[in-house]
Design goal:
Mean pLDDT: 94
Oligomer: single chain
Number of helices: 13
Strand content: 15-25%
CATH topology: TIM Barrel
Radius of gyration: 18 Å
Number of strands: 10
Low-confidence stretches: 304-309
Length: 309
């Protein structure tokens, strides 16, 4: 049982959450989404990706979003980059951290970013070096680590070996991502053990999609395995444009509810998240996958006050 622990929530709604949406949000709405998450206590956020806008139109205003963000002490803004050209674009802004991606499947990697798995490792290492030379932080996400929509099962030994190779470049952390939402808790436990052995001393983060409704269970398995940074998306929006039938990330409010009730400290205000998710529902013009923003927290403030009286 995990008790009296603290984890970091990395809000990815403005990047991974929006990238799969056909409804293009305004720069102002994206900035509001990010600001609302920070107001609720989030200190680290993926805010944009520096990719070809023809392939991901939602991210065409990356520079404008970053230029409009407030400068808040203790807050880290992350920009996703898939190649050195994207890294150069990101480094020309005030972004704090670059997020590189190495994909554990050749087919998915070629379709997603035009790189084989081995090529993506080399590029990720080059991006880390470029960020460090510019005085910025960098991290790497091992994408499709639990399965590929085109190749099927992904060998965990291959993922661990990729972690070993990118660790040599000295990233801030390594994240493992269930990009298509096929993982289960037993896989999470096993893969984290393998990566810890392959890349000792490197902090680990996890990124789960909820396509098959196992995202929160996987997040809990990661916390029990000692991971202290978890990605999530306000309202549960998101999904990779190149991952068929993607249904979204694990919702930030659902994750924080689970952790709060499990005595795992996040520093994030649940009611603030719920209010923001309701706002986002109106902005998106449709219901969102998250459950806690519909049901509310527990005990709910009014009911709790009545009992206390």
């Amino acid at each position: 049982m995990v008790q009296d622990r603290r984890v970091e929530i990395v809000e990815v709604g403005a990047r991974d959450g929006l990238q799969n949406e056909s409804n293009i949000l305004s720069t102002e709405a994206k900035v509001s989404l990010i600001t609302r998450a920070m107001d609720a206590g989030i200190k680290r956020l993926e805010v944009a990706s520096f990719v070809n806008p023809k392939r991901v139109p939602q991210m065409a205003d990356a520079e404008a979003v970053i230029a409009a963000l407030p400068n808040r002490p203790g807050v880290t803004y992350i920009g996703l980059v898939l190649n050195e050209r994207g890294a150069d674009r990101a480094l020309a802004t005030g972004i704090h951290e670059l997020g590189a991606v190495a994909i554990a499947s050749d087919t998915f990697g070629i379709r997603n970013q035009g790189q084989t798995a081995d090529e993506s490792v080399e590029v990720a290492c080059a991006i880390i070096a470029k960020a460090k030379a510019a005085g910025r932080s960098a991290q790497v996400t091992l994408s499709a680590a639990f399965g590929c929509p085109f190749e099927g099962e992904v060998d965990p030994a291959r993922v661990a070996d990729m972690a070993r190779r990118v660790a040599k470049a000295g990233p801030r952390e390594i994240a493992i991502a269930d990009t298509i939402g096929v993982g289960v808790p037993a896989q999470v436990t096993d893969l984290l053990r393998r990566i810890k052995e392959a890349a000792p001393g490197i902090p680990l983060r996890v990124h789960f999609h909820n396509t098959r409704n196992t995202g929160l269970a996987n997040a809990w398995a990661a916390v029990e395995a000692g991971v202290t940074s978890l990605d999530s998306s306000l309202g549960g929006i998101g999904g990779c444009p190149f991952a068929p039938k993607a249904t979204g990330n694990i919702p930030t409010e659902d994750l924080v509810y689970m952790l709060d009730r499990s005595r795992v400290e996040t520093g994030v205000n649940l009611e603030g998240l719920i209010t923001s998710a309701i706002w986002l529902t109106d902005v998106m013009g449709r219901s969102l996958p998250a459950m806690v923003s519909r049901a509310g927290g527990f005990p709910q403030p009014a009911a709790h006050a009545a009992v206390s009286a």
